[in-house]
């Protein structure tokens, strides 16, 4: 675990190895989570790839910065982190808002990317009024007031059992999230729309959906894939919005297949 100051914000990051022979895979977490969501996926990928994980501003151990944010604020941080590590020609795997960060990164700096995995995300997520209502609800009652509702979209009913300590752990991750970091990133998602830009993506792309995702349902992820020429589309069965937690083996297998067959061939 390391820290670096980028754009006047301290960013927490971790690199699994720095073997120059390994392609670099960047994993970008979702709204209300941090880099720990990749914990079960890392061992399944780290032998063949140098993997960068980090906490977005306003999440985990990274600084808050000045909220509300834009997607460009998050992209600026990621560009700064890649420059700091001297990483280029990376494959980026972005989950939910992480996928929107990936889309905007390609739009601004396509030379940095050799491939993209857009997981449980879309070119446009939710209506403006929905995000405004969520921000208002969190500001009035705290994140905990929406925990059950959010968790019902993140995880399947089988995972959301009182006897499952991992479920309680992810509830803690969400509710201990800094309020302004959460609402600030809600605003970033609210204001983002990449419908016009994603058809211009010209690197290999894999779009991943969770079978029971209540935040970005499979049909929404499919609509993103349909906009990107030559993209692939896969569904992780038995998982919802965060398949790297619920189905890490299946999730990693889909990523490995894409990387070996479409990026490293």
3D structure, described in words:
β3 (24-28), α1 (42-45) and β4 (50-54) form a beta-alpha-beta unit. The chain has helices spanning 42-45, 71-85, 97-108, 128-141, 147-154, 165-175, 179-190, 218-227, 243-246, 248-263; strands spanning 2-6, 9-15, 24-28, 50-54, 90-95, 113-119, 205-210, 232-236. The longest helix has 16 residues, at 248-263. The protein has an 8-stranded mixed β-sheet, sandwiched between helices. 40% of the residues lie in helices and 17% in strands. The chain is globular, with a radius of gyration of 17 Å. By secondary structure, the protein is of the alpha/beta class. The model has no long low-confidence stretch (mean pLDDT 96). The chain is built from 10 helices and 8 strands. The chain has one domain: 3-Layer(aba) Sandwich (Rossmann fold). α2 (71-85) crosses α3 and α4 (128-141) packs antiparallel against α7. It starts with a strand and ends with a helix.
CATH superfamily grouping: Alpha/Beta hydrolase fold, catalytic domain
- Given the structure, what is the number of helices? 10
Q: How much of the residues is beta strand, in percent?
A: 15-25%
Summarize the biggest pleated sheet.
8 strands, mixed
Percent range for helical residues? Answer: 40-55%
What sort of overall outline do the alpha carbons produce when their principal axes are compared? globular
CATH class: Alpha Beta
The CATH topology assignment is Rossmann fold
């Amino acid at each position: 675990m390391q820290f670096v100051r980028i754009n006047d914000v301290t960013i927490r990051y971790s690199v699994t190895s720095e073997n120059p022979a390994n392609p670099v895979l960047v994993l970008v977490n979702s709204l209300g989570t941090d880099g720990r969501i990749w914990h079960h996926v890392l061992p399944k990928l780290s032998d063949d790839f140098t993997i960068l994980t980090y906490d977005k501003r306003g999440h985990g151990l990274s600084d808050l910065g000045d909220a509300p944010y834009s997607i460009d604020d998050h992209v600026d941080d990621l560009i700064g982190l890649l420059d700091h590590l001297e990483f280029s020609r990376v494959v980026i795997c972005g989950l939910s808002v992480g996928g929107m960060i990936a889309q905007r990164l390609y739009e601004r700096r396509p030379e940095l990317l050799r491939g993209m995995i857009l997981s449980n995300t879309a070119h446009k997520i939710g209506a403006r009024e929905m995000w405004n209502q969520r921000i208002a609800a969190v500001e009035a009652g705290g994140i905990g007031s929406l925990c059950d509702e959010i968790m019902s979209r993140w995880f399947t009913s089988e995972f959301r059992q009182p006897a499952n300590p991992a479920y309680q752990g992810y509830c803690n991750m969400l509710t201990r999230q800094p309020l302004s970091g959460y609402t600030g990133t809600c605003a970033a998602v609210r204001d983002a729309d990449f419908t016009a830009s994603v058809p211009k993506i010209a690197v290999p792309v894999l779009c991943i959906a969770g079978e029971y995702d209540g935040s970005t349902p499979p049909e929404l992820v499919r609509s993103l894939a349909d906009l990107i020429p030559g993209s692939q589309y896969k569904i992780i069965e038995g998982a919802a919005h965060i398949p790297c937690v619920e189905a890490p083996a299946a999730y990693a297998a889909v990523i490995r297949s894409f990387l070996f067959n479409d990026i490293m061939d």
